[in-house]
Write a structure and sequence with these properties.
Shape: globular
Structural class: alpha/beta
Strand content: 15-25%
Length: 445
């Protein structure tokens, strides 16, 4: 029996696809082992969202070949789409597989080990021309409380800084019946929570024929009817999807967690225009107001890019004041990374790294303060927590999980509560990130 090791880089979509490829290899008779072990096959699902991601992808490919020079090293995914020809010349890489070809992995490896010459070529399509959603699915995930479910691929937005439309192609949506069947199976196995994810989640269903049109809200309504399912979260959303009608409908879903990741990128209208983002800071703010009208203290998280070409000190100041006004729960702060092939790469006014770092540090400190403020707002509140993992705080063992708002909370370690919902009152801050949950004597009944 051949051994296969897989390593994932990048987003939750990549993680889902890596899980799916691993299960395909198991079905084909491979034994899955840790990436640190000696294997016959190493599959690296690469990322190309930044230059750093490219470098990490190359490093992992070379690390795999060094671990076992006789193994088949497979480069898959987004970096392959961006640099397939370069990778085919790399002696550390035996097989390159682009996006929308990952489901073919077992057959490609069969050809490779049979010595067939065609297995050494690149399996890369013109991703910008395909309209087919690749049929990948999972039967289980490594974590037995939460499952990420890929429902969509590709993006039509062409933000001026982003390489993703060139590596993932145009919007392609997964059929709702296929999604419902996968979630039913996972929920039936005891998975408590699902997270819907995609490259551009808000575009789900826009590529379906008019006669079969389904949108994100319709899909979620169907998933909400699965009785075994306890919680449903959304991945990153475009702000423009948030309307009164949309928020009202979400508020009526039994399983929906009030945790919304709305991609911002900048609080300056001038920078948003240069980024080719299709909203203003004022419109974004109204989306947050709508969510707060329909949900009690929802978690609103975001992404922010600092040091975009031409970003002045005044424009950065606008972003800083805007994030304080919105009071985000969490922010992912990125320093602008120049990507060849994007419009922003050729823009004037590229910002020095030292300035990017300075602005990033300011936002990171702001994020920490806002995040702590949001967590403290739950003190004294009764909440349901899905318990997940053991941790040590101050020399004592605790079981840590998440509220529906994705706020960490802990009880004293109890193996029997792992993977279960525990209801109680959030009493104090154990750390800046974790609150202590005092359980209800009744068990929440």
């Amino acid at each position: 029996m051949r051994k296969a090791a897989l390593h994932n880089l990048g987003c939750k979509v990549n993680a889902y696809e890596t899980e799916a490829m691993g299960q395909l290899l198991e079905e084909a008779g491979y034994e899955l082992v840790a990436f640190e072990e000696t294997a016959d096959v190493y599959v690296i699902n690469t990322c190309s969202v930044t230059n750093i991601a490219d470098r990490k992808s190359r490093q992992m490919l070379h690390r795999a070949k060094k671990r076992n020079p006789h193994a088949a090293v497979v480069a898959a995914g987004c970096y392959v789409q961006a640099a397939g020809e370069e990778l085919q010349k790399d002696p550390a890489v035996d097989i390159v597989i682009g996006n929308n070809r990952k489901a073919e992995l077992p057959g490609i490896l069969e050809d490779f080990f049979a010595g067939r010459e065609e297995a050494r070529k690149g399996y890369v399509i013109d991703i910008g021309k395909t309209r087919e959603y690749e049929a990948l699915s999972i039967r289980r995930v490594s974590e037995h409380t939460r499952a990420f479910i890929k429902i969509q691929d590709g993006c039509n937005q062409f933000c001026s800084y982003c390489i993703i439309p060139y590596t993932r192609g145009r919007v392609r949506s997964r059929g709702p019946e296929d999604i419902l069947a996968e979630v039913r199976e996972l929920a039936g196995q005891g998975y408590q929570e699902i997270v819907l994810t995609g490259i551009h989640l808000s575009s789900y269903g826009m590529d379906f024929p008019e006669s079969d049109r389904e949108d994100l809200l319709g899909l979620m309504t169907g998933l909400d009817r699965i009785q075994e399912l306890k919680r449903m979260r959304l991945g990153s959303l475009e702000p423009r999807i948030i309307t009164e009608k949309f928020a009202e409908a979400l508020a009526g879903l039994r399983t929906l967690c009030p945790h919304f990741h709305l991609s911002l990128q900048s609080g300056s209208d001038q920078v948003l225009t240069r980024m080719n983002r299709h909203y203003t800071a004022g419109e974004y703010e109204e989306c947050c107001r709508i969510l707060r009208r329909w949900f009690d203290n929802p978690a609103i998280t975001t992404d922010v890019i600092v040091g975009f070409p031409g970003e002045t000190g005044e424009e950065f100041g606008e972003t800083l004041e805007f994030v304080k006004k919105i009071r985000f729960y969490e922010m992912h702060i990125f320093k602008y990374s120049r990507r060849e092939g994007t419009k922003a790469a050729g823009m004037d006014g590229q910002i020095p790294e030292s300035v990017k770092s300075e602005r990033s540090d300011i936002l990171l400190k702001t994020e920490a303060a806002l995040s702590l403020e949001y967590r403290k707002s739950f003190l004294g509140k009764k909440k349901e927590v899905l318990m997940e993992e053991k941790t040590v705080i101050g020399g004592r063992d605790y079981l840590v999980g998440y509220t529906r708002e994705y706020v960490k909370a802990a009880v004293l370690w109890d193996r029997e509560k792992r993977g279960k919902m525990v209801t109680g009152t959030l009493k104090e801050m154990l750390t800046d990130e974790i609150l202590l949950l005092e359980e209800d004597p009744s068990g929440g009944r």
